[in-house]
């Protein structure tokens, strides 16, 4: 039995992880989040067919292709990264594998991508000092957002935050976990 939902398990089974997370020489792409964290985060994000998802931090493109599978042909994934080379690499892979529902941008993720919103889900694989209000403004009411947040000034001291966008264009915290979000998403 899988530790992930049937939808995330199915997405993992049809995506060539190595094509995204390894360079042609077999070395790992350094901007890759662990498969375990990606899968548990996507489970908590509850991505469904037809949704629009904003992804901050394209990285290797692996999480983006999983999101592409989860939103299906009627949904859209918009991914942004500050490193143009990562965006081009991911774009080439998505094109090679026929992923036409993923749009990539090389820009500062703090800005989001307002021209492609509004979004039903926002996931950030980066750790901003604070959650940019632009992400909230670009989201629909009821959208779920999962992002890493800094807990202190120490290196690598962070947690995963899950929140819901409210009608008032604010955030309502749902969970904070240092292990991931899969066991802490019950609404208060």
Provide an overview of this structure:
With about 190 residues, this protein is an alpha/beta fold. The protein has one domain (about 5-140): 3-Layer(aba) Sandwich (Rossmann fold). The protein has 6 helices and 7 strands. The protein has helices at about 5-15, 15-20, 35-45, 60-70, 85-95, 135; strands spanning about 50-55, 75-80, 100-105, 120-125, 140-150, 160-165, 170-175. Strands 3-2-1-4-5-6-7 form a 7-stranded mixed β-sheet. β4 (about 120-125), α6 (about 135) and β5 (about 140-150) form a beta-alpha-beta unit. α1 (about 5-15) packs across α4 (about 60-70). The longest helix has 13 residues, at about 85-95. The model is unreliable at about 180-188 (pLDDT under 50).
The computed structural class is alpha/beta
What would the average pLDDT be, to the nearest integer?
A: 85
User: What would you call the shape?
Assistant: globular
Query: How many strands, what sense, and barrel or not for the largest sheet?
Result: 7 strands, mixed
**H-E string:** HHHEHEHEEHEEE
Break the fold down into its secondary structure elements and pairings.
Layout: H1 6-14, H2 17-21, H3 35-45, E1 52-56, H4 62-71, E2 76-81, H5 84-96, E3 102-106, E4 119-124, H6 133-137, E5 139-150, E6 158-165, E7 171-177
Parallel strand pairs: 1-2, 1-4, 2-3, 4-5
Antiparallel strand pairs: 5-6, 6-7
